[in-house]
């Protein structure tokens, strides 16, 4: 809503009244935001679109009541014996209000505590129907989804832009029950066996003595673990790349990581890996930018996702599968499909797109939806099954177990956000927070009292009920056991820990490799114990000599020699983020620096052109309010380069904060447009007039030039000169 539009009307409120600042005594619409805090023009009020169906019982009407519905006259003063007290125990409203408040928090997730989520829709194109009988993957099937993105290590209040893997968990509310794909933005995992999960997390979380550092991998225990459990080296290499610093949740790939088994209508099985591909491309922040944002806007990713959806810039992902034959050995080109520390390069198995997801609705209540959503890799639908990947097998236990503690009992599936959109007829009863009022007397099977209901498909009723394979039941696929010994051993193929770390590093472009090298130098530079640093350098020596040499030099240590013969493989260009492609710029933010003298018509036309391109312009001025009638979104006090994808300077503003903004934008490889009248500034910030990614000229030329540079994400040439 813009500043000058009418206040939102609530039912029963007088038709129109001026915004009041006094305490309201009768219902009316919310106050409009200040001009400098209102969103850009493309924003729309969310009220109508965020109403969540299916959770009817929430704060209706205008009268304040207790939890029992008793109307209240006063919620600001305790009941006292006389004006000066003491307070009386009989004040039930006081006790109810404070008791409820005391219990408002629930335990945060032991991992992935920090997250942001959105509702969406998945539309299948039918390409998967040959491999799976899953109804939501049939041609044209439309399925509601809820996606929660997260960091792994940080607490609930930690910063968004830390160096970390990101969770990408999707709940599909299919006609056959809930299907959860609980993935990450990195296609491999740290460990091969779930039994080590508590260990890697203990190592990654803050040190137990002082509880520092928060949400970081740059500390001794993390590097101790990954250098001792060398299977973690591949994932760690991804963590040192810009994949671990996403520009936006909207610009992240997602991966199911494990190999899953699909079953088609004929019962034929296929092995697959799942991929999410963002239509906006996969893009990162620079490390310095990520660190600055962690202080300036710790909610950066959360805000970016919500703002983009509110502005109508709905993020989209194509959903794809890599398909492998379900052979006895479960190997593909020698790669063990059960090893979650290995990828299958897309050059060997291309990703086949099977549908598209659009996120188009923000949650209306963080706690009810984003916090209480409960994912589980074992929430499967007919046509999709697990494999024996030992990491996945352990996960099948962990998620249900953790939800019972986190959500206070076994009935969390009844919470609105977790409720399937398919019919439920279970025989689960009672328990903490039971909200269903079950009828009938026989929650067991078989029974002769409740009419025999509910019947398992294919078993009871059989032919009379027409129950067949297609009756909608989940059918367990018979599996051959490879060996008939009980053992704690793993296959020999799991012992290759370095070849794919090398494959990933050598597949990157020079600028991406530079960032990886700098990341290792930074992280290992934070490790106190030299023995750990040296052990990690020995791992790097087995991966790539040049990488190892760079990092060793930065640390002032000798580069060790390799200790293993590591096989080479063909580089996989599909692993690069810097591709030379041009990507949609929808939802990108561009700052327009102006002052009181700037031609208002030029500012208006710059904003219009940017809007028309789907970009959000943010007018940056010496003060809030308006400039020539144009609303100001950021004053020099609140503006920061790191929330902008590009900067356009229309005013010769020599304010030191603007100069710093320009220096940072330049250092972070962002497109910069400087109008002729402001060009003298360039000398102040030591940006050469011929610098790559710098556009000068009149307003139209600089806006056009910046819009031409934005689709490439960054001006990488600046880093490689
Ligand atoms: Fe996990 C949460 C992803 C291995 C145990 N995991 C969690 C979330 C994501 C992942 C995205 C957050 C879900 C949400 O937004 O609510 N986890 C992964 C991936 C893994 C993986 C991609 C490997 C391929 N996880 C893994 C293992 C274990 C766990 C091996 C335990 C043996 N994960 C959990 C958990 C969490 C969780 C403790 C914490 C909160 C929750 O489940 O609901 O059960």
Q: How would you sum up this structure in a few lines?
A:
It is built from 18 helices and 20 strands. It is α+β, with helices and mostly antiparallel strands and 721 residues long. The longest helix has 17 residues, at 390-406.
Layout of secondary structure:
Elements: H1 47-50, H2 92-102, E1 115-124, E2 142-151, E3 166-174, E4 177-184, H3 197-204, H4 220-228, H5 233-239, E5 254-255, E6 260-263, E7 269-278, H6 287-296, H7 300-310, E8 316-325, E9 331-332, E10 335-336, E11 352-361, H8 366-371, E12 384-385, H9 390-406, H10 499-507, H11 510-525, H12 530-543, H13 545-555, E13 589-593, H14 600-612, E14 616-621, E15 626-627, E16 630-631, E17 634-635, E18 646-649, H15 656-667, E19 671-675, H16 681-684, E20 694-697, H17 699-709, H18 717-720
Parallel strand pairs: 13-14, 13-18, 14-17, 18-19, 19-20
Antiparallel strand pairs: 1-2, 1-11, 2-3, 3-4, 5-7, 6-7, 6-12, 7-8, 8-11, 9-10, 15-16
Protein name: Catalase
Domain Catalase core: 65-453
Family: Belongs to the catalase family. HPII subfamily.
Describe this structure in words.
With 721 residues, the protein is α+β, with helices and mostly antiparallel strands. Among the domains are: 115-194 and 243-418, Beta Barrel (Catalase HpII,  Chain A, domain 1); 589-720, Class I glutamine amidotransferase (GATase) domain (Rossmann fold), CATH 3.40.50.880. It contains 18 helices and 20 strands. The strands form four sheets. Strands 1, 2, 3, 4, 5, 6, 7, 8, 11 and 12 form a ten-stranded antiparallel sheet that branches. The protein has a six-stranded parallel sheet with strand order 17-14-13-18-19-20, with helices on both faces. The radius of gyration is 28 Å and the shape is globular. The structure holds CIS-heme D hydroxychlorin gamma-spirolactone. CIS-heme D hydroxychlorin gamma-spirolactone (HDD) is lined by residues 109-112, 115, 148, 150, 167, 169, 182-184, 189, 194, 197, 257-258, 340, 373-375, 391, 394-395, 398-399, 402-403. The site of CIS-heme D hydroxychlorin gamma-spirolactone has 28 residues, from strand 2, strand 3, strand 4 and helix 9.
């Amino acid at each position: 809503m813009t500043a000058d539009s009418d206040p939102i009307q609530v039912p029963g409120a007088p038709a129109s009244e001026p915004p009041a600042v006094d305490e309201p005594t009768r219902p009316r619409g919310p106050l409009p935001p200040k001009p400098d805090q209102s969103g850009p023009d493309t924003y729309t009020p969310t009220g109508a679109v965020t109403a969540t169906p299916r959770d009817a019982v929430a704060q209706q009407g205008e009268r304040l009541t207790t939890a029992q519905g008793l109307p209240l006259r006063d919620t600001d003063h305790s009941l006292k014996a006389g004006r000066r007290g003491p307070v009386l125990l009989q004040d039930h409203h006081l006790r109810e209000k404070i008791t409820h408040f005391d219990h408002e928090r629930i335990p945060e997730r032991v991992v992935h505590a920090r997250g942001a989520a959105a509702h969406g829709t998945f539309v299948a194109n039918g390409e998967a129907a040959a491999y799976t009988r899953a109804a939501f993957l049939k041609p044209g099937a439309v399925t509601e989804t809820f996606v929660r993105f997260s960091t792994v290590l940080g607490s609930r209040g930690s910063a968004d832009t830390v160096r970390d893997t990101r969770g990408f968990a999707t709940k599909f509310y299919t006609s056959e029950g809930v299907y959860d794909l609980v993935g990450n933005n990195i296609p491999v995992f740290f460990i091969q066996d779930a039994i080590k999960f508590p260990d890697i997390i203990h190592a990654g979380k803050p040190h137990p003595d002082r509880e520092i550092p928060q949400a970081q991998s740059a500390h001794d225990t993390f590097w101790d673990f990954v250098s001792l459990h060398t299977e973690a080296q591949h994932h760690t290499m991804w963590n040192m790349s810009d994949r671990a610093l996403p520009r936006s949740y909207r610009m992240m790939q997602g991966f199911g990581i494990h190999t899953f088994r699909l079953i088609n209508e004929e019962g034929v099985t296929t092995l697959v890996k799942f991929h999410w591909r963002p239509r906006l491309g996969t893009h990162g922040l620079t490390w310095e930018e990520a660190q600055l944002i962690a202080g300036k806007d710790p909610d950066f990713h959360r805000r970016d996702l919500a703002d983009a959806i509110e502005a109508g810039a709905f993020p989209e992902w194509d959903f794809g599968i890599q398909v492998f034959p379900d052979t006895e050995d479960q190997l593909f080109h020698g790669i063990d499909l059960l090893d979650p520390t290995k990828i299958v390069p897309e050059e060997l198995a291309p990703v086949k797109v099977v549908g598209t997801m659009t996120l188009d609705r923000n949650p209306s209540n963080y706690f009810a939806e984003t916090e209480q959503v409960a994912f589980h890799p074992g929430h499967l639908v007919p046509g999709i099954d697990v494999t024996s990947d030992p990491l996945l097998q352990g996960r099948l236990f962990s998620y249900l177990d953790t939800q019972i503690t986190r959500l206070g009992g076994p009935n969390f599936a009844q919470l609105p956000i977790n409720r399937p959109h398919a019919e439920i007829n279970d025989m689960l009863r009672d328990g903490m927070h039971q909200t269903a009022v079950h009828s009938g007397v026989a929650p067991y099977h078989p029974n002769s009292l409740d009419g025999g209901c509910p019947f398992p498909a294919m078993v009871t009723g059989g032919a009379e009920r027409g129950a067949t394979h297609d009756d909608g039941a989940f059918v367990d696929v018979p599996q051959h056991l490879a060996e008939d010994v009980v053992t704690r051993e793993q296959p020999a193929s799991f012992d290759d820990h370095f070849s794919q770390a090398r494959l990933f590093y050598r597949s990157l472009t020079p600028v991406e490799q530079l960032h990886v090298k700098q990341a290792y130098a930074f992280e290992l530079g934070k490790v106190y114990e030299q023995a750990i640093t040296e052990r990690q350098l020995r791992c790097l020596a087995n991966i790539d000599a040049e990488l190892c040499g760079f990092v060793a030099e930065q640390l002032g240590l000798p580069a060790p020699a390799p200790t293993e013969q590591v096989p080479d493989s063909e580089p996989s260009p599909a692993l690069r983020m810097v591709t030379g492609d041009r990507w949609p710029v929808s939802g990108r933010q561009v700052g327009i620096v102006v002052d009181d003298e700037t031609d208002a018509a030029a500012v208006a036309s710059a904003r219009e052109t940017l809007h028309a391109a789907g970009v959000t312009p943010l007018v940056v001025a010496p003060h809030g309010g308006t400039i020539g009638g144009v609303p100001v979104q950021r004053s020099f006090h609140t503006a920061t380069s790191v929330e902008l994808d590009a900067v356009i300077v229309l005013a010769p503003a020599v304010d030191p904060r603007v100069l710093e903004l320009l220096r940072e934008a330049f250092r972070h490889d962002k497109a910069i447009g400087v109008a002729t009248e402001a060009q003298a500034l360039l000398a102040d910030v030591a940006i050469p007039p011929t610098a790559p990614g710098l556009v000068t000229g009149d307003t139209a030329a600089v806006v056009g030039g910046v819009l031409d540079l934005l689709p490439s994400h960054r001006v990488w040439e600046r880093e490689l000169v």
